[in-house]
Amino acid sequence: xxxxxxxRFDPAEGGKSKFDQLLNLFMQLITYTSGDVSxxxxxxxxxxxxxxxxxxxxxxxxxxxxxxEKGYLTENNERGDPDxxxxxxxxxxxxxxxxxxxxxIFGKLKKTKQGDHHSFKPGQGDEQNPETRQxxxxxxxxxxxxxxxxxxxxxxxxxxxxxxxxxxxxxxxTDFKSQTSTVLMIxxxxxxxxxxxxxxxxxxxxxxxxxxxIKTRYPKDTLDxxxxxxxxxxxxxKDLPYLQVGPYHTNxxxxxxxxxxxxxxxxxxxxxxxMITDGKPTCLKIGKRYYKNSFGLDRKVVNRCINLAxxxxxxxxxxxxxxxxxxxYLQKFVQEFTEMNNGKAFFASLDKLxxxxxxxxxxxxxxxxx
Length: 370
What we know:
The protein is α/β, with parallel strands linked by helices. The protein is about 40% helix and about 20% strand.
């Protein structure tokens, strides 16, 4: 006999299974530990002791087994020590972290097929406009709405003596939809974890959320991620959960030069740079030598940054700086840098960083560079 099986619904838990509840916590902690499964599980065990996350029916060992069964972890226990689990997260987990970051920072966005930044300007685009107009000299053949044009000809000349003239032709315009190429620069200098404040984790979450947003909502856009310390190098989206701060100075010049080089190769007319940093530029690479000065603002370093801001302006590449610092002299530098580029600057707190970036990214979808 067919029927229904009902389980207990707990409104406080949103109806989630024990595995789903623990998975959400696991996704949060794995970001903080930069992909270290062993450290993450140690944290979860401590939280379990304190807050009783599991019970006799479903323990932490059951959770680990289910993570492996569902493809979130791969076995990598070299020493065979059950107290020192050496598992490794899978691409499925990496995607889950990005989705979790997207929901946390940008809200629950639905996937769309268009994946483009709409503008208010009609033109030769790839989405049809419901409005039609009369043919004008210079209109393309593919813009003609033949169904409407034949109808006009029948009305104007009759069915028996059918003919089509220029004033019978109707044009159906298409809305122009812009594509955007974005480079996200992330400061991984040592100051991103100084003074007991974790600044790199919010930056990673924002990067993962932005990448997932572009993949799901704007798939025709491009996103490149550049990290900079003493040097600068590009990383893949899949590498973001493992990103860590190093014993580096802040070579903002190297980051900007790499971002500009990437955007030069992009064919999109709309290009932009987002830069997340908490400190002043303190480093340059001159030949094979590193020029460093962590005390105050070194004019030699600052001038190179200002010059690159001006070069980006000439290339029509706006720079939006998200500064996680409140020092007045640093804000003054960022203002000077921003004015030279004619870009934007946000002095964002860690909890508001994602909201600032999302708002700025979304507002740019209605801007088109010709």
